Amino acid sequence: MKNKTAITLMWVVSLLPFALVALAWPYLPERIPTHWGFNGQVDGYGSPVTLLLLCAIGPILSLGLQFLPRLDPKKENYERFQSRYDLFGPLVPVILLVCVVISLSESLWPGRINVSRTIGAMIGILFLITGNLMGKIKTNWFMGIRTPWALSDPDVWNKTQRLGGWVFFLSGLSAVILSLLAPEKIFFAVFFTIFFVGIILTYFMSWKWYRDKR
Questions:
Q1: Helix 115-134, helix 82-108: angle, nearest 10
Q2: Residue 132: CA atoms inside 13 Å, Cβ hemisphere, count?
Q3: Which tens digits make up the pLDDT trace of 18-31?
Q4: Pick from 209, 206, 188: which is nearest to 198 by CA?
Q5: From CA 140, how far away is CA 144, in angstroms rounded?
Q6: pTM
Q7: Contact 154, 139 (CB under 8 A)
Q8: What distances in angstroms separate CA 165 from CA 7, 153, 157, 186, one per listed residue?
Q9: Measured between alpha carbons, how far is 170 from 126 in angstroms, rounded to an integer?
Q10: To 5 degrees, how large is the angle CA 122–CA 132–CA 187?
Q11: How many CB atoms lie within 10 A of CB 138?
């Protein structure tokens, strides 16, 4: 990442969960909800320390997003989609921040949030944004759908990312709509079906485009 504003925002959002947990810590019960089933009901409890582990994921991912491109053998390609990469950087810790907020809310005020629908909508929004970004990603070893055939040919890479972008976009759109309208089990079944079938199709087409070109 090169945009200083994006880097600053990414780190602020990454560290914010620690501040929220610190403020809430004196009021947290000894056992907090750590897992919810497809029906939105809590089916797992743990220590408040679990929240600290969740908070730590953000800074770790932020370090990777900021510095891994420097290790990429194809690092010169990042210049060709730098603005998209800088946009993606703060997006990942935002998702983790929402997860921490949900966990704190359910620990302090149980039942105020429909967790499964909230998470479903959040995943859908993430997939919608990612789908819109993927078509502009150029060959690299850390982002995009990195099939061996796509990594071997720039044209196959571009086609693979465009198709993968549509898979992510349609999966995200279904997640947002179904998380609002459909029963939880139906939502997750439809979402995962669209996504996994789409990914399998993307891998197949990536191989086919490479084979046809050769």
A1: 180
A2: 11
A3: 999 999 999 999 88
A4: 206
A5: 8
A6: 0.84
A7: yes
A8: 24, 18, 12, 23
A9: 12
A10: 35
A11: 19
